[in-house]
Write a sequence for this structure.
């Protein structure tokens, strides 16, 4: 096994609730590893509304999605959580010794006493344009991210979208592509102005082509793309040579592999009890947007509370023989030591 | 007021609109497959619909926010709207919308 680690708690999802769970577990001396398919913490806060204001976090009259994430990250630093980013939590199995083994699609294996599912609305995955037969091209010619730029050298590339990713990759790949065509449904972009200006300069110089329109069809054999049909704003269609299609329409949330963990699900949510926030499988907890119980509110406020109660119950599972003391951070020297302030 | 919604299989649903509610909320409450991931905050573009041509110009125009968010819709058409940004009102009785492909 290449990459196996042992810890106290595995947290699936590094959204705001997964992050705060590190804090609550940490106060009880439980160490945590977090797994997230994204490349940074914050979940919906950083992915959907980094710049938008949040007004209902107790004690913080105003904070942005990114700001809250930064503060949570700061707050949990003393507990030295380990982050496994860019990885999908894909399999969960009980070990003979009663602990859990979580595997990710990147080959990481984490063994722990408890699993905390803080998966929110599910894992963020790229939006797939509804172009017929696109799935067949996904492993070879259609890419939702650029892992290795070299793979695109000398290619005829079509990029779709009007956000920062579409513009950034247009600028980055233009110098190495044989040809590059950017298509977007309007002559306006939701991207940094300097990127838009640079793109327009490249287009004016004939180094790339920009079309107002969309991608209508993909043509090729055995998953290898050969041509792409585009449609202009006037619905006129034409076909160009292409070996790679990169659609950048942002991310959407899909429950993903958690659906196959053998947990009881209710409309893609995980039912829990409200004393322990444990699922019907002992040792597996669910907190934040992913769980459901009578009166559930999808608010971070509620998720933070759930994290605190979950940690108490998780301690009982992970340290059955140790006493569980209730302490305040204000007055407990031992908690302050853990927080690195005493 | 009535809203006529056409689902992804082409079936027509006649829904009761409620003043002050958004079209997204009416679609979702009727159990139609509209994801509306962000809950109506104009932050996800997963409540994308096509508005019947006859109705398109009768709606209050898109805000700049909505126009920008529509950049994240995968199957844009000139009559695309985000249904969380259309509020039911008496003048919209009979509004026809088609749920965009996923
Ligand atoms: C526009 C908008 C405005 C909002 N405003 C407020 C507000 O003002 N106040 C408020 O309290 N709430 C607000 N919310 C809701 C709040 O953002 C959510 O309640 C909160 O993000 C839930 O946190 P979470 O940690 O449970 O899940 P999420 O933030 O959804 O994070 C879950 C994480 O888990 C990851 N994940 C899931 N499955 C897997 C897997 N199998 N493998 C790897 N990673 C996985 C995902 O990639 C994601 O990063 C708002 C939401 C939106 C969209
Ligand atoms: S519900 Fe998210 S944009 Fe309308």
């Amino acid at each position: 096994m290449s990459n196996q680690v042992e810890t106290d708690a595995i947290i699936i999802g590094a959204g705001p609730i997964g992050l705060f769970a590190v804090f609550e577990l940490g106060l009880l001396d439980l160490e945590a590893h977090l797994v997230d398919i994204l490349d940074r913490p914050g979940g919906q806060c950083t992915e959907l509304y980094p710049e938008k204001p949040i007004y209902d976090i107790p004690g913080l009259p105003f904070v942005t999605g990114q700001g809250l994430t930064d503060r949570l990250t700061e707050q949990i630093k003393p507990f030295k959580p380990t982050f496994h980013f860019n990885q999908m939590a894909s399999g969960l199995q009980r070990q003979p010794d009663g602990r859990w083994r979580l595997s990710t699609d990147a080959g990481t294996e984490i063994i722990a006493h408890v699993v905390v599912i803080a998966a929110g609305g599910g894992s963020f995955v790229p939006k797939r344009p509804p172009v017929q037969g696109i799935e067949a091209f996904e492993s070879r010619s259609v890419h939702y991210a650029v892992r290795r730029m070299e793979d695109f050298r000398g290619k005829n590339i079509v990029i779709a979208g009007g956000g920062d990713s579409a513009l950034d990759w247009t600028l980055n790949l233009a110098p190495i592509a044989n040809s590059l065509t950017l298509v977007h449904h309007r002559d306006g972009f939701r991207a940094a102005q300097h990127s838009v200006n640079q793109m327009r300069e490249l287009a004016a110089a004939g180094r790339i082509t920009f079309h107002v329109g969309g991608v209508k069809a993909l043509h090729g054999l055995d998953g290898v793309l050969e041509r792409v049909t585009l449609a202009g704003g006037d619905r006129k269609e034409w076909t160009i040579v292409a070996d790679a299609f990169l659609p950048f329409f942002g991310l959407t949330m899909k429950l993903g592999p958690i659906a196959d963990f053998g947990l009881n699900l209710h409309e893609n949510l995980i039912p829990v009890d409200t004393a322990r926030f444990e699922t019907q499988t002992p040792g597996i907890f669910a907190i934040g947007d992913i769980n459901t119980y009578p009166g559930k509110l999808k608010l971070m406020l509620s998720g933070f509370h759930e994290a605190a109660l979950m940690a108490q119950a998780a301690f009982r599972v992970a340290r059955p023989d140790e006493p569980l003391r209730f302490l305040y951070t204000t007055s407990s020297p031992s908690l302050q030591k853990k927080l690195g302030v005493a | 007021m009535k809203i006529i919604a056409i689902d992804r299989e082409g079936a027509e649903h006649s829904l009761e609109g409620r003043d002050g509610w958004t079209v997204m909320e009416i679609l979702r409450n009727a159990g139609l497959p509209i994801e509306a991931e962000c809950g109506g905050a104009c932050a996800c573009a997963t409540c994308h619909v096509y508005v019947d041509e006859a109705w398109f110009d009768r709606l209050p125009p898109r805000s700049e926010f909505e126009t920008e968010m529509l950049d994240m819709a995968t199957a844009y058409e000139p009559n695309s709207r985000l249904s969380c940004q259309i509020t039911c009102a008496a003048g919209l009785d009979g509004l026809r919308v088609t749920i965009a492909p996923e």
User: Anything to note?
Assistant: Chain B touches chain A through 22 residues (CB under 8 Å).
